[in-house]
Specification:
This protein folds into two domains: 203 residues, Rossmann fold (3-Layer(aba) Sandwich); 86 residues, Putative methyltransferase TM0872, insert domain (DNA polymerase, domain 1, Orthogonal Bundle), CATH 1.10.150.170. The chain has a seven-stranded mixed β-sheet with strand order 3-2-1-4-5-7-6, with helices on both faces. The chain is elongated and about 60 Å long. It is built from 13 helices and seven strands. Helix 7 runs antiparallel to helix 8, helix 7 crosses helix 10 and helix 11 runs parallel beside helix 12. Helix content is 39%, strand content 16%. By secondary structure, it is of the alpha/beta class. It binds S-adenosylmethionine. The site of S-adenosylmethionine has 21 residues, from helix 2 and strand 2.
Length: 314
């Protein structure tokens, strides 16, 4: 069944090898997607090994339910909540490795009904869990100018955030922004009006920023990191693949051998919560891995990936 889906797993062997799988160990794949990493982890476990998989997308959970065997627990929730389930399973401090492969899968991106892509017309949704919360369309039609600007500028690092936000607010005075194509056209027109020719599609950064905001992606990582030391066993491995410089900065700071202040983790849009990260447990940074040129040629999506690996030590 997994083979019917077309997500090209990024850094498949590098990420799974980084966990140093013990055949009877207990592992978590906190971003199941279509199960590329999970399937390889399972192939290295014996009948006593356990794999806990997490995803907040109901369609990923459907795949998990139809493909995984009885060595697995499936959690349909945000990974920031997984500590609750690990506690219920009485496994706090007993997890040998946690893997995260952040962002969205190609399956989510390619499905026009999910509204993640400016290349495909569809409802402007962008929720990873499309059963809860507000859609990107709802937010864009109701948010204040300053909030839109802040998301595009801070999360998208979009230099033309001001022009684009103004165009969005102007457009929605007369029409609702409903589909991906509406937003893509507004952004493209803003670029043209400032005579900017971009090598990338002009909507790239804005779409990614709005997706990150709607799904609270940075907050999710920060929350998980704030309690990951309670989940992992001593010497347990944390491996994270990120695709965005802001994500990578949070992970890099967390894994840094130098003790940093809590402020190092603080990134907030609209003065949202500034998280206090517990520094009582320390992690030892082990390695950073980027995809090979071969992988990048075969899977363009992998080009911005960075895998960072750390080990919990006492
Ligand atoms: C890049 S894909 C993972 C692909 C997977 N490693 C594979 O090989 O098929 C990321 C997945 O993580 C899920 N996800 C992202 N952020 C999440 C979060 N905060 N909580 C739970 N799931 C999340 C997405 O729904 C998506 O299915």
């Amino acid at each position: 069944m997994i083979n019917n889906y077309q997500h090209n797993t990024v850094l498949l062997h590098e990420a799974v090898n980084s966990l140093h799988i013990k055949p009877n160990g207990i592992y978590i794949d906190a971003t199941f997607g279509s199960g590329g990493h999970a399937k390889l982890i399972l192939s290295k476990l014996n009948k006593n090994g356990k794999l806990i998989v997490v995803d907040r997308d109901p369609s990923a959970i459907k795949v998990a339910c139809s493909t995984l065997d009885n060595r697995c627990y499936i959690i349909y929730d945000n990974f920031s909540n997984m500590i609750k389930y690990i506690r219920q399973l009485n496994l706090l401090g007993h997890i040998d490795g946690v893997l995260l492969d952040l962002g969205i899968s190609s399956i989510q991106l390619d499905d026009s009904n999910r509204g993640f892509s400016y290349m495909k017309n569809g409802p402007l949704d962008m929720r990873m869990n499309n059963t809860t919360g507000y859609t990107a369309g709802y937010w864009l039609n109701h948010a204040k100018y300053n909030d839109i600007y802040s998301v595009l500028y801070n999360l998208g690092e979009e230099y033309y955030a001001k022009y684009i936000s103004k165009s969005i607010c102007k457009f929605r005075k007369h029409h609702s922004i409903i589909n991906t194509i509406d937003l893509s056209k507004i952004i493209t027109r803003s670029y043209k009006s400032i005579n900017k020719h971009s090598k990338r599609h002009p909507a790239t950064k804005s779409f990614r920023a709005i997706r990150m905001f709607i799904n609270q992606e940075l907050e999710e990582i920060k929350l998980l990191l704030s309690h990951i030391s309670h989940i992992l066993s001593s010497n347990g491995i944390l491996s994270i693949i990120s695709f965005h410089s802001l994500e990578d900065r949070i992970i890099k700071n967390f894994m840094s051998p130098i003790t940093t202040t809590n402020n190092a983790y603080s990134f907030s849009v609209n003065q949202q919560s500034i998280l206090k990260i517990s520094k009582d447990k320390k992690f030892k940074f082990l390695k950073k891995i980027k995809p090979s040129s071969n992988e990048i040629i075969n899977n363009r999506r992998s080009r911005s990936a960075i895998l960072r690996i750390a080990q919990k030590i006492y």
